[in-house]
Amino acid sequence: MSTPHEPVTDPQAGHSPESTGATPEPSATSPARGDDPLRGSRTSGVWVATVGLGLLLVLLVVFIAQNTDTTTVRFLALEGEAPVAVALLIATAAGILITASAGTLRILQLRRRTRRDLKRR
């Protein structure tokens, strides 16, 4: 005997409610990934990323528009003038690159160690 949450297959007809177009009752547990019509997809991921990047771009434009005053930037023996927004964005990009390179080196180190450990087994 089936529970009220399971699709019932008619043994005489040989088909389930899904094949007849009938809507089965929702399951008490979460549906399997292939059964969920509202599951995420690559297209929805791209859409979310596009919207997120669009919002970030708008905020970046506002930041640049509000910080157009020129400032003197000194680094070691170098000196120059640049808008405040540009100086901050360059500093941010440099920080991101330094962090990414350190993270990349660590990932490569761990992969090398893992390969070496797997060969020993």
Describe this entry's structure for a reader.
This protein has 121 residues and is mainly alpha-helical. The protein folds into two domains: 30-66; 70-121. The chain has helices at residues 17-20, 42-66, 84-120; strands spanning 70-75, 78-83. A two-stranded antiparallel sheet has the order 1-2. The chain is flat. The model has no long low-confidence stretch (mean pLDDT 79). Residues 1-41 are annotated as: Disordered. The chain crosses the membrane at residues 46-65, 85-108. Residues 17-30 have a biased composition (Polar residues). Keywords: Cell membrane, Membrane, Transmembrane, Transmembrane helix. Residues 66-117 form the Lipopolysaccharide assembly protein A domain.
Could you list some keywords that capture this structure?
single chain, mainly alpha, flat
Label the structural class: mainly alpha
How many individual helices? 3
State the domain count: 2
| Helical amount | 40-55%
Which residue ranges are poorly predicted, with pLDDT under 50 across at least 5 consecutive positions?
none
Mean model confidence by pLDDT: 79
The counted number of beta strands is: 2
Please give the radius of gyration in angstroms.
28 Å
- How do the helices and strands follow one another from N- to C-terminus? HHEEH
CA-CA gap between termini: 50 Å
Query: What fraction of the residues are assigned to beta strands by DSSP?
Result: 5-15%
Strand arrangement in the largest pleated sheet: 1-2
**Biggest sheet statistics:** 2 strands, antiparallel
| General shape | flat
